[in-house]
Structures are given as structure tokens and as C-alpha cells.
Amino acid sequence: MIDKSVGFIGGGRVTRIILTGLKRAGKMPADVVVSDTNNEVLKKLKDEFPEITVKPNDNTAPAEKDIVFLAVHPPVMPTVLNEIKAFLKPTTYLISVAPKFTIQSILNTIKCFPRIVRMIPNAGSIVNKGFNPITFAETINEAERQELIDLLGVLGECPVVPEEKLEAYAVITGMGPTYFWFQFNELKEIAKSFGLTQQEAEMGIEKMAQGTIKTLFESGLTPAQVMDLIPVRPLEEHEAKIKEAYHSKLEPLYKRLKGIA
Predict the structure, then answer these.
(1) Are 157 and 85 within one domain?
(2) Is 57 part of any domain?
(3) Which strands form 93-96's sheet, in the order they lie side by side?
(4) Does the predicted model carry a pTM greater than 0.90?
(5) Which terminus of the chain has a lower count of CB atoms within 10 Å, N or C?
(6) Which of the residues in the chain have pLDDT under 70?
């Protein structure tokens, strides 16, 4: 169990992922408060996690905790920050999980509160296999940084990265699972139609995906040499379209997050 109180401002997907990861690891804090403007969101969260306290339309309650997650969209950040800044304790870690809104932007709004952290959450945290890049305000010392990394480590890896790279991580690792989930699921269904059981299909695809990544990144071969390891490429004629989809969708998204015209 984590011996610090935790508040979540926003009860959506990221909050559910983090809470599930903590509970799965047996590290659920004794004191968790979640606020949201949507009562239905809070009801579903309370049904799943009866031990938490929910506060409809009251962001001040979670703001008083030891660790406060800002799980809101960037457009509403200024409003939320102005609402909670008087309730933050000097020792609180204020963790924003939103891209785009920088540490300096947060500091400009709350003025005198320096313990600001930004993290790009990863869906794998729900099974304690997340990759959650994190950046600290310069005013947070090394011991404090390590304390928070140790606490968040139950969710998976938590590498410290330069803040200017967070938006790249948001597009590549934060949203990255969505580029593959539908493909893996489709492969599973096709495998079952070929006579594999669900367990056989899932195990095969999981092991294949792990080996595929390691072969590309750790074999010492060039990408072209890796692609030449298998003589038959059934989707070769569609590869150019898939690559174009990546570039046409992800590059403009990254520019929007970085505020690049």
C-alpha cells in the first residue's frame, strides 16, 4: 500500500488505468479522492473501486492530498489550476498527465507552487507494464524525484526525460497501443478461424510481437535485412498505404500538441 493520500482531478480513462494498476499490484492508497463534473463517470469508478471517495464538481477535495493527478484536458487546465491553487499543500506532488501544457505554463498559473511533475501515461500501466515518461520541475530535488519514481514504479517503467520530448512520447508511446491493438485482435480472430484455440492464438501473437520488436531493435541488422528474414510478406502491397497513414495522421497531431503552426 502507498502511504500517501492521492487525489485525481478528472475520473476518466487515465484515472481508471492508474487505479487499476495500483490495485492489481496491491498498492492502492488508503485515502483516494476523485473529482469529476460527470456523475456517471464517478458512479462507474466508485462501483469498480468501492474504497475510493468521489466528489462530484469539487476539485478542492482531491487538491488537498499528498499526490494530485491533473487528469483533465489541456483547454480546461487554467480554470482547474486557478480553482485548486489555494488548496495545494507545499509538500504535494502535482502531476499533470496532459500533453501540451508545460511546467512553466502550470507555474505561471499557480504562481508559488514549485512541485510540478508531468507524465505521459501508458495504457500498459493497467497491467503494471506501463511506460510512463516523466519530467520534473527543477525545484524538485533528487531524493524527491526518486521517491515519486519509486511510488509510480508499480505501474511499470517511469523514465525521466526532457520536457520538450513529452509530446513525442505522447504520440508514440501514449497513443501507440491504438496503432496495434486492432491488428493484434484481428490476427487473433483469424487464427481462431484457422483452428487455433483462443489461448494458442493469444500466446502465439504475444510471443511473436515480443520477438518481432527485439529482432528489429537488437539483432544488429538493418531494417531492410530484417525485412528480408521472411521470404513471404502477405501485406507488402499495402505497406506504402500504411506508412502514409502514419505520417498523414501522426505528424499533424504532433505539431498540434507542440503548438507548431
Answers:
(1) yes
(2) yes
(3) 53-56, 32-36, 6-9, 67-70, 93-96, 116-119, 134-136
(4) yes
(5) C
(6) 1, 261
